[in-house]
Amino acid sequence: MAGIFYVKDPDLINCSMSISLSEIRFPFFIGIGGSGMSALAQYLQGSGRQVRGSDRSFQTDNPIRGQLEAEGIECFMQDGSGLVPEIDCVIVSTAVEETVLEYRLAQERKIPVLHRSDLLAMIAASRKTIAVAGTSGKSTTTAMLFHILEQAGYGPGIISGAGLTHLIRSGKIGNAVVGTGDWLIIEADESDGSIVHYHPEIGLLLNIDKDHQEVEQLNQLFRRFRDQSKFFSVNRSHPLTRALLLDADWDFSTDGTAAYRATQFVQRSLTISFQVNDIPFELEQVGAHNMENALAAAAVANRIGVELSVAAAALRSYEGIYRRHQIYGKKSGVWLIDDFAHNPAKCAASIRACQPIATKLIAWFQPHGFKPTRFLRNDYIAEISAALRAGDEIWISEIFYAGGTAQRDISAAELVQGLKEKGVRAYFVSDRNQFLDAVRPHFTEDCVLLLMGARDPSLEKFALEVWKQMG
Question: pTM for the whole thing?
Fold first, then answer.
């Protein structure tokens, strides 16, 4: 195991402490219910540690708790009761504020505190790791690559931000597998800058769009990611990624010349087909963005040693991931599809992916976070208005508030007003529980109802309730 990783902020604990991966035997996760944290917790548990954790969402009925406990992970309310003397390390994410009781207790007891990204970097350094980066498509590409290598007999591991459908069906969260082989596939997150912590065997860059930070700041992060990757692969199709082609070991694209090229894209309802270097691919997915994701996964797999024809055969059985164009079904001519889209580029791609399914699309969106909504306000208006067809509609509910000290100084109604000024059929329904009754008269016999949003753990329950009440 290479390297020692230091605590998030040693000054907060008033001592100098460090810990290596091999020394972590009894870790405690604060905020274990989050997608990234639950994946790491399961990975450590599957690697022979005894994991504990807490989450404020455990105050209500939360299926994640039961799934974690089924893996042998002990779960607690966020009241300090789980911080027993045996705990040798506390894991936090950027979302965990230093005022949280267990964080303060860890400081008082001088327990080493690791940021989530430091732990992931430690794990990545212990394996031959493929780190998937970009502002969109990381979870899907990570899952596709895992599925290809799994089907090809490589026994890969995965640490992802979203559960794989075929693993979820077995009762698991589905976002972590230790694996039996050499390769580990992870998501490299740029949103909190933690991408610079990784030194992967293969670094994969999908795209760059304005999201949590300005584009120039993102470029700086991705340049460092490129420089720290032993081998680097980049998407030539996106203008902002081309600046990082220098020193790339291979590239891929959906236009022009590249080492790996996807062409002849066709979407028929819920299926896409295309060719990669003249090898035919067909997936039960929607959207041109999923062609790009599959292309990226197939290119990396091929470089590792998997024939493109084998990758194509594997992806024919790929079932998707949690809340990425998750199809609930069709009632009275209306398809219901639930998606994780939450930034402007993702919302636009999600809308476009669903348009070939029906002649009318009605999208509903719940923005998350007041700061991100304020930062991306004009981008939401521009991207969504450009994506919608003349007869399509967008409905927006109030911004999701996760608690904490955020300044609640913007409303989703401002997005609706801006969209209306662009000539879009846009509607504001503050309380999402009133959405279905309000939108029902707008349904046609050939329609898609697309739900979009992220970070809110109750969105799955909301989608299920909409599906139940649709007919």
Answer: 0.89
